[in-house]
Amino acid sequence: MNDELYSLEHFKKCPICKKDVQDVNALLLNETDARSTFHVTCPHCNTALLLLVSTGQMGLMSIGIVTDVNEGEAETFFHEKAVSDDQVLDAYEMLQEYTGGTKDIISL
Ligand SMILES: [Zn+2]
What we know:
The longest helix is centred in the C-terminal third of the chain and has 13 residues, at about 85-95. This protein is an alpha+beta fold.
C-alpha cells in the first residue's frame, strides 16, 4: 500500500467552495498505468473528494466524487474486497423476512 502524499497540479479549485486549492496534498489510493485514485480534502471547507485521474486519447481527465469518508477510512475501504452479487442477493432475501428494528440489524 502506498501512503505517500502527492501534489495534484491540475486540481486548482474546490468544486464545492470554488476557492483556490493549489498545492493541495492528496492521498494516493490506487495507481495503474492509465488511472490514479486520490483522496483529497479541501483546506478551506473540509469537503473530501475521491478524485479519479485518467489518461487516454483525449488527454488527462479527472472526476471528483464528494464523500464523507476521511483519509483513513478511504485507505481501509478502498483496498477491501468488493461486495459480490451473491452477497447482495443474500442481504435482500434476509431483509424480505426481517421484522426487527433498524438498531437491531446493525448488530446482526
Ligand atoms: Zn472547498
